């Protein structure tokens, strides 16, 4: 597997305040990387730098060897990177299918026909388990449905790299589990590489391959979920509370993997 993204010395200053401070990490093709950290640690800023919503103050972001730092969001999208937003803002007067078809149309890196946009939208809706019926409106969707719609809009642009921003916010426990499984399925079925930003660590740790943990704009830990969940620096920034639930999730995952391994033998 090749390297999809290389981030080096990436820095973002707002006036005299450094929100992201010389961070660096690699992302392998097909990987799910969790970008975690407490509120205000620099996750969204990092995300916005990769997605083109903010220009870096210094450092570099390379997509398969090509510098993308400072490109516009549209240019970044056309290179195959799609993002979701923490707070979904769909066009409320349009149907679900129309919302996703618009994303497909404007996110495509070449002119596509109306029917192709609809086809891509239907595919994205199927992947996210939303109704493909062209008459269903956005109004009836709850928090979990709106998060799925966000995901469908990003997937309709046919990305190679998906940036998922706080996919769990406002969801109950069962919905969080489903959202985590959905990202895992999308990677498995479509081979899409994923960076998943979350301030809640819990359920994320069950599906990510590796984690990068931010605090005050700096990386304080990088590694496998079970490594970072037990890292004293990570436990400290999460004040032990979330870390406990993370350790439970990671323990559950290890048990599942062990059982799966045994079944495969
Ligand atoms: N446009 C801006 N101007 C000034 N400061 C900013 C700006 N955007 C973010 N910041 C500051 O940068 C720091 C990092 O913010 P960021 O939103 O990246 O954190 P986060 O880890 O995503 O937090 P959350 O989990 O709350 O979304 C915060 O102190 C924030 O107030």
Automatic annotation (TrEMBL):
Highest taxon listed in the record's lineage: Bacteria
Keywords, sorted A to Z: ATP-binding, Nucleotide-binding, Transport
Q: Recall the GO molecular function terms of this protein's record.
A: ATP binding; ATP hydrolysis activity
Q: What is the protein's given name?
A: ABC transporter ATP-binding protein
Stretches assigned to the ABC transporter domain? 5-241
Q: Which organism is it from?
A: Thalassobaculum fulvum
User: In the UniProt record, which is one GO cellular component term?
Assistant: plasma membrane
What Pfam families does the record tag this protein with? ABC_tran (PF00005), BCA_ABC_TP_C (PF12399)
- PROSITE patterns in the record, alphabetically? ABC_TRANSPORTER_2 (PS50893)
């Amino acid at each position: 597997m090749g390297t999809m993204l290389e981030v080096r010395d990436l820095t973002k200053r707002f006036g005299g305040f450094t929100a992201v401070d010389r961070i660096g990490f690699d992302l392998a093709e097909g990987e799910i990387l969790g970008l975690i950290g407490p509120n205000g640690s620099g996750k969204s800023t990092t995300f916005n730098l990769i997605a083109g919503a903010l220009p870096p103050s210094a450092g570099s972001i390379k997509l398969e060897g090509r510098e993308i730092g400072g490109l516009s969001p549209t240019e970044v999208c056309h290179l195959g990177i799609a993002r979701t937003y923490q707070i979904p803002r769909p066009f409320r007067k349009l149907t679900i299918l129309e919302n996703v078809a618009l994303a497909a149309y404007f996110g495509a890196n070449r002119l596509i026909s109306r029917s192709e946009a609809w086809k891509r939208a239907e595919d994205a809706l199927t992947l996210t388990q939303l109704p493909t019926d062209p008459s269903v409106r956005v109004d009836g969707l709850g928090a979990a449905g709106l998060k799925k719609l966000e995901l469908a809009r990003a997937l309709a642009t046919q990305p190679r790299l998906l940036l998922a921003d706080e996919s769990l916010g406002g969801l109950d426990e069962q919905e969080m589990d489903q959202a985590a499984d959905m990202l895992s399925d999308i990677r498995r079925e479509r081979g899409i590489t994923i960076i998943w930003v979350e301030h809640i660590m819990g359920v994320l740790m069950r599906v990510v391959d590796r984690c990068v943990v931010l605090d005050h704009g700096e990386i304080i830990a990088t590694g496998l979920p079970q490594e970072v969940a037990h890292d004293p620096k990570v436990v400290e920034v999460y004040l032990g509370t979330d870390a406990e639930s993370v350790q439970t999730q990671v323990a559950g995952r290890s048990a599942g993997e062990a059982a799966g391994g045994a079944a495969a033998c």
